[in-house]
Fold these 2 entries.
Entry 1:
Amino acid sequence: MSRNGKIILLVLLAAAGLSVAAVAARRGETDHPVARITWDGEVVEEIELDRVGRGYSFTLESQEGSNTISVEKGRIRVAQADCPDQVCVDQGWIADGTVPIVCLPHKLVIEIVGGGSAFDAAAG
Amino acid sequence: MARRMGARGGTLALCLALALSLLGGCARQEEKSQRQLFAMDTVMTLTLYGEGDTRGAEEILDGSVQQIQWLEDFWSAVRPEGDVARVNAAGGAETEVAAPTASLLRQSLELCAVTGGALDITAYPAVKAWGFIDQEYRVPSQAELAELAGRIDYRQVSVDEGTRDGETVYTVTLPAGMELDLGAVAKGRTADLLAESLAADGVSSALLDLGQSTIRAVGEKPDGSPWRIAVQDPAGTGYLGVLELADLAVGTSGGYQRYFEQDGVTYWHILDPDTAAPARSGLAAVTVVSPSALTCDALSTALFVLGLEEGVQLWRDHPELEFQALFITDEGELYLTQGLEDAFSLTEGYEDREVTVLS
C-alpha cells in the first residue's frame, strides 16, 4: 500500500472510531448492563451487573419508606418493600432495559442502561 | 509529479470530508435523549432520537415535561385547583374549564357513547369506594355498589361553550353526587398532544412511554426499522409477544395492573360501569393499536369490560375508529384482529401459544 493509501486508511479508521465513541458518549450507555437506582430522579447507586460475583442485598431507606434490593450477576430486583401495593416486589427480576422497576409510592426507579435490550418498550 | 500529488491530496481531502460527514450524520441521526418523570400516577419515559428543526433535544424534552405537568394539573381528580377536581366539587353547578379539558371531555364522551357505556368517565365515586385512589382497599357491600352504579352515567355530563369579551369560554356541568375520572383517557390524550408537539418541532423519531399502559411511537426508529413493543403476559412476569410498529399508539388494560386481594379473591381497578364492581368478562388483558393514543387508552378499557365477543363486534362495527386489538383471555388464549397479523409475533417460550386471527 502506498503511503497516501495508508494515510487515507488511518484517517477513515480514526473517523469510524470517533463516530462510535461520539455516539456511545452521547447516549451515556455502555456495552455492559448497569443498574441505575434513582430516588425522585436523583441517582443513588449504579451497579455494573456483569461484575457482580456473589449475589447480595441492601436496603435503601428514605422518608417515604424502605426497599430491599437484591443483586445477582446480570440481574436485579426489589426483594422486599414496605409500600402498600408491592408492585415493585411482584415485578421480580429485570435483566435488560425494556422496563424499569418502579416503586411509585417511594418514587424509586431501578433501570438497566447499556447492554442492549430486545425491545424498545413493553405494553402492559 | 506535482499534478499527481495534487490528485492524491484531493482524494485524501475527499475521503476526510466524507468520513467527517458520515460522523456528523451518524451522530445527528442516532443521538438518543431520554427523560423520566413521575406523573399521572405512573413513571413516564420519553425517548427522543436526533434533534428538532430549530430546537435541541433537551429543550424539546423540557417542553414535553412541562406539557405533561400542565395537563396533569387540569385532569387529575386529586389536584384541587384542576378542572376535573373543580367540576367534581361543584355540586351540580356549571364550572368553567380550559379548552384542552373541554376538547378531551367531548371526545371521551363520544367514545363512551360508541362503546355503549362500557367506557364511562364518571366512575370516580366507585373507584374511590374500592380504595383505588388512596390505597385503602375495601370491598363495598352489594347495596353500596348498587347505589354507586346509579351514580355512573356519562350521559349526564354536559360540555357547553359561550363567549365572553370575544373569547370562547367552556363550561362543564355534572349533577351533584357524580364525579369525573379521566384515568382511562388522560394519558392517551397527553401522549397524542406530546406527539403533535414533537412533530411540530420536526422530531421524526421518538417513543413516548407513559407508564406501559399508554405508549405512543413518533415515526420509526432512527435506523428506519419499526419499534419493538413487548406485550406483557398477564399471567406471569414475561413477555408473550412483540408488536412491531411505527407512528402508532399502543394502549393496554389488564386486571394485573392494579389490584388487591381479599379472602382469596382478586379485585382489580377496571370497573364495570353497570355494576360498579371489577369487570369480569373472561379477559385478562386487552391491547389496542391505533394512530390515536386516546382511542387506544379508552378502547382498551372498554374492550376489557365488554369481553371478547362484544369487543370483536365493536371492532367489526366501527372501522372508522381505526383500531386493531389483541385480546388475551383468562385461559391465556390469544385473539388478534386481522390488521395486527403481520405486526405481532410470539416471543421465545411462547411459540406454542395458539393465536386466532379475527376477521
Entry 2:
Amino acid sequence: MSRDHHHDHDHGEYSELSDVELRVRALESLLTEKGYVDPATLDALVQYHEEKIGPRNGAAVVARAWSDNDYKQWLLSDATAAIASVGFEGRQGEDMLVLENTDDVHNMVVCTLCSCYPWPVLGLPPVWYKSAPYRSRAVSEPRSVLAEFGTQLGQDVEVRVWDSTAELRYMVLPKRPAGTEGWSEEQLAEIVSRNSMIGTEVVAGPAS
Amino acid sequence: MNGAQDMGGSHGFGPVVEEIDEPQFHADWEGRVLALNLSAGGGRWSIDTGRFAREDTPPADYLSRSYYEMWLYGLEKLVVEYDMVTVDELAAAGNGASFDEVTDRRLRPEVVERVMRSGGSARVDVEVDALFGVGDRVRAKVGAPRTHTRCPQYVRGRIGTIEIDHGVFVFPDTNAHELGEKPQHVYAVRFEAEELWGHDSEGGAVYVDLWDDYLETA
C-alpha cells in the first residue's frame, strides 16, 4: 500500500498542497463517501481538542491542590475522581495518577513507546514530548534532559521517571513556590506551566 | 515488537528542543488526521491494534515521519486491514469514486463532546488474582516478540520492585491482534536507574507500568 509519491496527480485545485495534505484529503473524502465518517464530526473533534482541553485545566487542578489540603490528599489517592470533580475527564485520562514533587523527590513523565499523555488535564502533547530525543533520553539521562529545560536539581533530590507504558495517565503536582502565600486559586493557576505538570520544569515563584 | 518505537535508552537523537508558542496543530491536516483516527474506527479496532499499525513500520520510515504522518499512515493501513476500503480505492480516492454502502456506526457531531468526556477505560471489571504484591522483587521477562508489546526492551531481564498495583486491565499483547483481552493486573514497577544503566546512570529510578505476563519472581 505504498503511495509515497504523487508525481502523477492532477495539478488542479490541489496544486499548492503537499503530498501528505493530499493523502489526508483523499482518505477523508473516501471515508466520508463510504459512510464511515461525517465531516461535521471531524470539525467537532478538532474544535474539542483546540478549545476544551489544554494545560489550563491541569493548572486549575494544581492550584486547587495547593490551596486545599483535603483536595490535595484526594487528588493523590484517587486522581481520576478528584480531577473529574473539577470538570475534567475522558479520553486519555480515564485512569489518572498524580505524582507529588517534594523537596526530596522530583517526578517526570514520559512515554518511551509512543505519546501517552493525560489529555483532559494537559491537552494534546507538545511535539518535543512525542519526539525521539525526549522519548529516548528521559529514562536514561533525566538530569541531562532536565538541564536542557533549565531545571537544575540538587544531588539530594531523587529523580523518578514514569514511563507511561500502560493506560494509566500521569500528571505531576509541582511544588508550590515560595512567595505565593495568600494567593487565590486563580493567581496560582496563572503560574503553573504545562512543563511543570509533565515534570521537566519547576514552577518559578514571583520575582522578588 | 523490537521496532523503532521502542526508543527508551537509545542514543543519537540530539537535544530536546522545545518550540515556543507551539500551536495545537501546525497545519489543518494534522487536526483532520487526529479527528479521523478518533472517529473512523467506529469501535472496529482497539487502541492497541492502532498502536501496532503505527509501530509496525520500517525503522527508517518511522523515524523520518512526523507524529501526525505516522497517524495518517497507520490509519491508511487499518482501513484496508478492516475491509473498509481497498488499496485501489485509496489510490483512486479524490477522483470522484462513490459508494452506496451506508453504516450507522458513524460518530455524530452532536455527541463528540460527550464521547470524548466519557473516554473508554482499559480497566476491566473482573476478579483476577494478582500474581505479585507491592514490595515483591520481580524481573521483566526476556523475550523478543514480533507482535505488539508494551514491555520496553530497556527493562527486559532487569530486576525491579512492585510499587503500585493499578488493578486489572486489558492485555495489549493479545488485544492488539484480536486474541482476546486477557485481563490481568498492571503494576508500577520501580527499577533503580543503576540497574538499568549501570555506571552510566544519572541516579534515581524509572517506574514502568507492566502486566503480570511480563513479570517473573526475581
